[in-house]
Amino acid sequence: MAIRRTLLFLFSFVALLASATGLVAQPSTDAAPPIREIPVDGPIGPATSAFVARELEQAAAANTPLIILRLDTPGGLDGAMRDIVKAILASPVPVVGYVSPGGARAASAGTYILYASHIAAMAPATNLGAATPVSIGGDGSAPADAEPEPEPADASEPESDNNAVQTSDNATAKRRKAVNDAVAYIRSLAERRGRNADWAEQAVREGTSLSAQAALDANVIDLIAADTTQLLDRIDGQSVETAAGTQQLNVAGARVEQREPGWQTELLSVITNPTVAYLLFMIGIYGLILEGLNPGTGVPGVVGAISLLCALFAFQVLPVNYAGLALIALGAGLMVAEMFAPSFGILGLGGVAAFVFGSIMLMDTDVPGFDIPFGLIGGIAVASALLLFGILYMFLRSRRERIHTGHAGLIGSRCVALADFEREGRVLLHGESWLAVSHTPVVRDEPLVVTAAEGLKVFVRPAGPADTTIATGNAPARGPIPRR
Length: 484
Description:
The chain has about 475 residues and is α/β, with parallel strands linked by helices.
């Protein structure tokens, strides 16, 4: 009986412990992961695309029920935009593109992202569109879909005019190819999501834009929502087709977690800013130049090397024109050559000109936010020119300065006789005993002036009234060079 009671007690204790453990663990297993809201603000570049792609991967791993891309962008780089679109299309988690808050826009690249999203929504007083690639139509040339001008039939037309027409036709063909590619891309996204593909093509070819209500009426977006809460209420119960299959949204009243870029993304965003990358490149070049002019200093070389590597990393993900980069490097090289082989400004001025033209050509895009301000280029060019003229001024001034080294530096120096002598004797010059030659007799401690030097022998004369400062002791004074 005692053994039976003991076993019954142990069984009851184990059952009670298992029940308590289940009750404690139950809330954590039933808690659903929050919805992730990812901001896409400002120009879309490599840092933004890397941030969005990483967040989509983490959301899929965490079984997040929904992702909200909050869009407010003027556009961005084509490569970065396509990376985001690929990540959305491959995402097993439903993605809502939401242009918010009021006053926001999804222009250019933002329009493609909105079309790629499983659900497209906008807040009141927002707009989208203007999806024409600006590097094609932003130069004041004819639209990409415009027909080329017919060639004149005059057989006597100069050959130069024919070359100009051929160049114009080639440029028009390239623009048409790029625009047709963009049209096909956005139409494929519209057809996949069942949205207005004709207006999408119009947004690319003509750069048209729509307000939120007009976009809803034209079947460009799915709904208008004033805030995130209203957005979740309106899409609750809808079914969307993702990379993992059809999913029904049960998100009404769900918790929303605001995701912000980490320090890695912020650092990448700063480095890949064209203005910052340009400054880092210039700091790197000038740092290496200063280290070369002052070997062993260390600080300019270390700072320059780090800055140059960061700039080159940024340039590999930015639309850089390598001809402009080569011109900047050539300009820096010419300015360095001016320092070592002064040409009275020819090399230096050529270097400044190459630097300015290279800086203007550096960024091979007209996308807003990815250009280098002309004020910055002009400021650095003026600073480089001032540095160049300063070096030239110091060079010319040094040619008029008295030489302080070698035999030429001894001429005009004061010395005193160490003993009496008729023609040759010893003098104290700069704290050292030198053999001296004089054409007149010299007495001990007589002040003398060096007129010439040859090997370890100096030629001296007595100091006259014009030699105002007379050397005494072991610290002979120095004065102007006597004129012959």
